[in-house]
């Protein structure tokens, strides 16, 4: 399957191949429009409506995921209602940066899964020679810092924090996420705008699992398929059908090269060396 497959392109997306139309807001573009443009309806309300406790599916910090229909209640400020044809937002106080954080990190990925387009991996990716390279790490594991280093070298951002894989594809293809990078950890902050973001669907053939090390120098080792599957499966974002999720990851993994990259803890000065190691491995692999 070609990276574009039989998907039609019809304009610019807000993120993850999805467009939003709103009289209330404008968004920077992030790649090509793949799955269509949908209304985002915003209303300012005095208070958020009460919900039935039986509808509560997940509660993490200020975020509550409700079912029937799918809704995100975020603190006392936002209520996103997600349907297959539109997204609505009721808010008591509109806080732009907080809104964009939850839209890009939670609402759009959830919407993309609801309409059956994408499966998400918790990780970041950048573009090298018309392919995506994935970086997977735990929170504060160096992923966004390393992504920032590659962006400083002139490479395009593909994703920060959510890598969206095209669900219908048999090979691992990913879409541009959104034009922001969170290379610091400020809560409910979408991060800094990024000028260079990938503009098309890209094959992802290489993933690095990041780990800290007490050694002075960075180093890379191959990851066996079983360990790689565990890492990918448990780093994938909630998907409603676990069997499809596992089958897809197994199929994509068979077409990937997976490595563990050890980063010297606290040694930011080794980043240029780390970037060189990754690029050398990718380009040497393409020559073989």
What do these coordinates show?
The chain has 288 residues and is α+β, with helices and mostly antiparallel strands. The protein has two domains: 19-116, no CATH class; 120-287, Rossmann fold (3-Layer(aba) Sandwich). 24% of the residues lie in helices and 31% in strands. The chain contains five helices and 18 strands. Strands 8, 9, 10, 11, 12, 13, 16, 17 and 18 form a nine-stranded mixed β-sheet that branches. Helix 3 packs across helix 4. It is globular and about 55 Å long.
Main sheet characteristics: 9 strands, mixed
% residues in beta strands: 25-35%
CATH class of the largest domain: Alpha Beta
- Report the oligomer: single chain
> Which fold name corresponds to the CATH topology of the largest domain?
Rossmann fold
Computed structural class: alpha+beta
State mean pLDDT (0 to 100 scale).
Answer: 90
So, CATH architecture of the largest domain?
3-Layer(aba) Sandwich
Q: Tell the overall outline.
A: globular
Number of domains: 2
The radius of gyration is 19 Å
Count of distinct strands: 18
How many helices does DSSP assign?
5
Low-confidence stretches are: 1-10
- What is the straight-line distance between the termini? 22 Å
The arrangement of helices and strands along the chain is EEEEEEEHEEEHEEEEEEEHHEH
The percentage helix is 10-25%
